[in-house]
What does this fold into?
Amino acid sequence: MQRRSLIKSGGIIALAQLSGMSTLSALANLGNSLPAAPRMPVLFVGHGSPMNAIEDNEYSKSWHAIGAKLPRPQAILSVSAHWLTKGTKVTGMVKPRTIHDFGGFPKKLFDQQYPAPGSPEYAALTRQLVSHTHVESDDAWGLDHGTWSVLLPMYPAADIPVFQMSLDYDQSPQYHYEIGKQLSKLRDKGVLIIGSGNLVHNLGMLDWSNSGKNFDWAHEFDTKFTNWINAGDHTSILNYQKLLGNTAKMAHPTYDHLLPLFYILGLQQKNERVAYFNDRIDMGSISMRSVIIGG
It folds into this structure.
């Protein structure tokens, strides 16, 4: 986004306070002031180990290639598996901090910083767009590794504004899906929306020898979801726990890493193209399968 647009949109709320304009009207003006852009695709990215951020491997290479291929975003909204809250929140700070929310990794990983600017303007528009629930503004969180470990290879210059949306873990898949649907206008404002998690995520069953053998339940879950996505069968996806039973429990002992996918599927428009990358299972129980919708 050009600096002039940032200044213009950033001053709308302040002007509203001075003129007595309602907050709702100010937010409506804010949405109109942000420039229109060609519709952005949406991504679900299997992020896996945070070491992928600094290793030269197949995952980081594909992230870099996709970042170079996609239209340049005006801003990036990340829905990360690593920000769980009571209620739904959006970061609204100007300078989000880099969060190292992990342990037991080399110092080189902890030394990494991703100093991308935030986007109070797009965060405010996001809050305006979501009527399914109340969305709070947050100035404490920042960019966790579900976000920056992927963006570091994708956009190494860290010069695109980034903001995050949290996950209310206590809510149903339908809740997250409905919020995703209401974010669609952001795509036409040049915002790249990324859901960062894993299609299969069971850390307790990792094959540390990395023998290349996958658990049957991991393969079944990955295949079922892929087939449902290909068929546009979002009803089955939202009812996956009932339909897949113990396979679902094995694939996601906790389902935080699956929740970002519901936002991305909620954003899918009729007849939009679906493509995959990094479509393999790592260490037996982590599916790195990633999805591009549209574009």
Summary: Residues 216-231 form the longest helix (16 residues). The radius of gyration is 19 Å. Residues 1-33 form one domain. The longest strand covers residues 75-85.
